[in-house]
Amino acid sequence: MTAAPPLIHHQPSSSGDWLRYFKSNAGEPSLPWSDPYRLTAAERAATVDSIRQFQLGESGKGRRLLGQAERFAADRGQPEYFHALRLFVKEEQRHSRMLGRFLELHGIRPIDRHWVDNMFRFIRGLAGLELRMRVLATAEVLAMPYYQALREATASPLLQAICTRILEEEAMHLRFQAFSFRFFQKGRSPILNRLASLPDGALFAGSTAVVWREHGAVFRAAGYSRQRLAEEATRWFPELRKDSSPATEDSRPTSS
Fold first, then answer.
1. What's the confidence (pLDDT) of residue 188?
2. What is the percentage of the chain residues whose pLDDT exceeds 70?
């Protein structure tokens, strides 16, 4: 079952819109934390190590990203963009807390380091704001089929509810990143915009291989093949290309 983006009354189309959206979505979600179901031995074997990795990956504070974004937003006269991005990062951290609480309920300790997380942090550390966001967007495109598969890999109502909530928010995150790329493109030539997007294919291919290697047990438990993983992830790329022409009136500050 493919996740559907959440229903919203108005598609955000400016920094102010996105800031209002993230503020409205900032509360803790209502989830069935009292659910008595506990993972079976087979479900634990297929999912626990994978959940621990994703829980770590979602926990980043994004200090360098936010520092670069604050300078970028100031240069563009868009302080609201920075504040929207800050709330975007907080939503990612909330995903980590939800997964961490699920692990805790099952008596499973989280991890504080993993080579995959270290690798992505290293790549982002070498990058400017736009490439950081492209690396992050690639990870989130792959997170969509991952959380779909994780939702189907166990019979846990709580884990299924957590995955559904994360999928809804990640779908909006992809739209926010598409909006961000409009900022990056504004004022640049088409050639430079094309050059800026060239890493996407290589990032996607490499990241897909890593995700399958590290989380294949979850995908197999949900009936996924590696090809299906790539196909499901590819379906989300159009979200990143929406409104990809340089921003015009949307780039002007709006009050929140």
1. 54
2. 79
CATH 1.20.1260.10 fits 40-248, yes or no: yes
Give the separation between CA 155 and CA 18, rounded to whole angstroms.
35
Q: What number of helices (H) and strands (E) belong to the chain?
A: 11, 0
Amino acid letter for position 147: Y
Rounded to the nearest 5 degrees, what angle is found at the Cα of 83, between the Cα atoms of 79 and 86? Answer: 140
| Amino acid at site 81 | Y
Task: Please report, for the chain, the start and end positions of each structural domain, with discontinuous segments joined by +.
Answer: 40-248
CA 241 and chain centroid, separation: 16
Among the listed residues 187, 238, 243, 234, the one whose alpha carbon sits nearest the alpha carbon of residue 12:
243
Distance CA 162, CA 106 (A): 15
Among the residue ranges 99-103, 116-120, 175-179, 209-213, the one predicted with the least confidence is 116-120
Sign of the alpha-carbon dihedral angle for 152, 155, 158, 159:
negative
Which tens digit of pLDDT belongs to each residue from 144-163?
A: 999 999 999 999 999 999 99
Q: Dihedral of CA 166/172/176/182: which sign?
A: positive
Q: What is the mean pLDDT of the chain?
A: 83
> Cα(20)–Cα(27) distance, rounded to whole angstroms?
13
